[in-house]
Write a structure and sequence with these properties.
There is one protein chain. The longest helix has 22 residues. Among the domains are: about 50 residues; about 40 residues; about 50 residues. The C terminus is likely disordered. By secondary structure, it is mainly alpha-helical.
Length: about 230
């Protein structure tokens, strides 16, 4: 049977080039170049195939990246906690610098709470005692400090409730230490200045005035000694 001109056996170009025809791996169409070499073209575009070597987006590679970010954030927070106690609110603010999602930040905070690195109640107690013993502050000033440090209201109230009701005695202790240096002032000026100092330390207005009067009366130059001008 004669073959018509133009008819060629299937795959002649491939035999002449010495290369076998290219069969698409994943069912895609095949483009054949001028040299007769086939090039597979996937009809699925960018769709993922399990035989590909590179990592699937959102797969194990991303998981490792998230884990690494969380570890860096936890180490950074622990470094700060070694130099200064932080409230949970302050610790969360530190973690925001590492762009952690809320779920990962919550996990870090829960872990540090479990191991005792974060404890709002203990921190509130420390701040209360520091305000009383070292700074001689009144209840209002201590409450303001707790709020600034992000201590929850219920935790702050519990810490303040443990304070003895001795604001007047603490105000007197502070006022007595200042009154002795005011002997050169007239009484009204000394009273006004001392009352203002007490108020700035967080003592209530009426209590500040009472403590200032008592301290000035006891001080040299008061009613028991040389009078104020």
């Amino acid at each position: 049977m004669r073959r018509r001109d133009g008819d060629e056996p299937h795959g002649r170009e491939s035999r002449e080039s010495g290369l076998a025809p290219v069969i698409p791996l994943f069912g895609g169409a095949t483009d054949v170049d001028d040299e007769g070499v086939g090039e597979a073209r996937s009809t699925a575009g960018e769709a993922w195939h399990p035989t590909w070597v590179s990592e699937r987006p959102g797969g194990a590679g991303d998981d490792r990246s998230v884990t690494h970010s969380r570890e860096l954030a936890e180490k950074g927070l622990l470094k700060k906690l070694r130099t200064r106690s932080l409230s949970i609110s302050e610790a969360r603010a530190v973690l925001r610098e590492y762009d952690l999602v809320d779920a990962d930040a919550d996990g870090v905070l829960a872990s540090l709470e479990e191991y005792g690195y974060l404890d709002d109640a203990a921190l509130a107690e420390q701040l209360v005692h520091a305000g009383v013993d070292r700074k001689g502050q009144g209840r209002a000033a201590i409450a303001q400090t707790l709020a600034k440090r992000g201590i929850p209201r219920d935790v702050a109230d519990a810490a303040l409730a443990a304070l003895p009701d001795d604001d007047l005695e603490r105000a007197l202790d502070f006022a007595r230490g200042k009154a002795g240096a005011m002997g050169a002032l007239d009484r009204d000026t000394a009273l006004r200045r001392l009352t203002g100092q007490l108020a700035r330390r967080g003592f209530a207005g009426s209590l500040s005035l009472t403590a200032a009067r008592m301290a000035l009366e006891e001080a040299p130059g008061g009613s028991s000694g040389v009078r104020f001008r």
